[in-house]
Design goal:
binds manganese (II) ion; binds alpha-D-psicofuranose; manganese; alpha/beta; L-rhamnose isomerase; L-rhamnose_isomerase; 8-stranded parallel beta barrel; TIM Barrel; 386 residues; two-stranded antiparallel ribbon
């Protein structure tokens, strides 16, 4: 039997970090469809993120992306967030949108470009000092398009050297979270293509370096929960970038494409003690055609639902079935939890937290969407601008 009070208590402590860029305009390389009311500044992105937290109660931090969220005064930005009930979260670096990075950034064959990339990462740590953020999130677009284009091994050496310099700069309580992605924008080799490469670098760097699992960064059919179980077992799972994919790195709402996979991942998190540790649960999504704030609220709710189901797994019944080799019973125990409708439980949890039971309805009733459409007129909307 699972202890419902403990499940509820755990759900109340959940923290899902939302990404600043999800509040801005986004699109594919074919078209960015602008939406009304989209933030023009990092401050307005935080205002929107604060609404997500206000109605869900479990989205207390916001990830920044540098330079998309560049401001003069980061302490003032942190204060802006805190005045609205949220905090600044991971600092995401960007070494992929500059002409100098055509052949890579930290792995580039030219030491001058590598220096520029490492300096940017060091600047991100300076920003963390000002914002109080503990996590530096690194994703490198580095790679090659053609066999022979560059030396695969040397690129790994350059990567190790650059990461080591940044690692040394980290202060107490700061971490480096290294993300992997199997392809794109490079198509032949990618310098951090998989969890094994990320893990190898993090292991050498030391305890402040951990791996980030972006759920959209795997080949179709990859067993992501196995990766999660392995990284947790090794103490190297730093966090998640949650999103859904049907084809490539689609960045759709988490839990939209494959809620069963999300449940299996969350079960391994709960099983491996990751839910109560310092594993960061971040969203990394783009809302190209749907309204952004309610889409982010929905995403947070999808993570909550998967977590609730994972917490409901009768672990002792499962262990007994596994130990006796009862394949069908073991599978049935897991599926019982997955097939539970946890929405009533989550409505209760929200009411006990002093929230409305339906965050999307509460957001709609708040009038925030109408307010930002009326007020955010003129200026330049935030976004990729592709
Ligand atoms: C790369 O596709 C990525 O997932 C990285 O997490 C970035 O930080 C994010 O997208 C936004 O560029
Ligand atoms: Mn990501």
């Amino acid at each position: 039997m699972t202890d419902l009070a403990a499940v509820k208590a755990a759900l109340k402590t959940q923290a899902v970090e939302t990404p600043s860029w999800a509040y801005g305009n986004s699109g594919t390389r074919f078209k960015v469809f602008a939406q009304q009311g989209v933030p023009r500044t990092p401050q307005e992105k935080l205002d929107d993120a604060a609404k997500v937290h206000e109605f869900t109660g479990v989205a207390p931090t916001v990830a920044l992306h540098i330079p998309w969220d560049k401001v003069e005064d980061y302490s003032a930005l942190a204060k802006h967030a805190e005045d609205r009930g949220v905090k600044l979260g991971a600092i995401n670096s960007n070494t992929f949108q500059d002409d100098d990075y055509k052949l890579g950034s930290i792995c580039h064959p030219d030491p001058v470009v590598r220096r520029k990339a490492v300096d940017h990462l060091l600047e991100c740590v300076d920003i963390m000092d000002a914002t109080g953020s503990t996590d530096l999130k690194l994703w490198f677009a580095d790679g090659t398009n053609y066999p022979g284009q560059d030396d695969i091994r040397e690129r790994q050496d350059r990567l190790a050297e650059g990461l080591a310099e940044v690692y040394e700069r980290l202060g107490d309580g700061q971490r480096m979270l290294l993300e992997y992605k199997f392809f794109e924008p490079a198509f032949y080799t990618t310098d951090v293509p998989d969890w094994g490469t990320a893990y190898a670098h993090c292991l050498k760097l030391g305890p402040k370096a951990q791996v980030v699992v972006d759920t959209g960064h795997h080949a179709p059919g990859t067993n992501i929960e196995f990766i999660v179980a392995t990284l947790l077992r090794e103490g190297k799972l730093g966090g998640f970038d949650f999103n859904s994919r049907f084809y490539a790195d689609d960045d759709l709402m988490v839990g939209a494409a494959d809620p069963f996979q999300l449940f299996r991942i969350m079960y391994e998190v709960v099983r491996g003690g990751g839910f109560t540790s310092e594993v960061a649960f971040m969203l990394d999504q783009c809302h190209n055609i749907e309204a952004k704030i309610p889409a982010i609220i929905r995403s947070v709710m999808n993570v909550q639902e998967a977590t609730a189901k994972a917490l409901l797994v009768d672990r002792s019944a499962l262990a007994a079935a596994q130990a006796s080799g009862d394949v069908l019973e073991a599978n049935a125990v897991l599926m019982d939890a997955y097939n539970t409708d946890v929405r009533p439980l989550l409505r209760e949890v929200r009411e006990e937290m002093g929230l409305g039971p339906d965050p999307i309805a509460a957001y709609r009733a708040s009038g925030w969407a109408e307010k930002i459409i009326a007020e955010r007129v003129g200026g330049e909307q935030a976004g990729w601008g592709a």
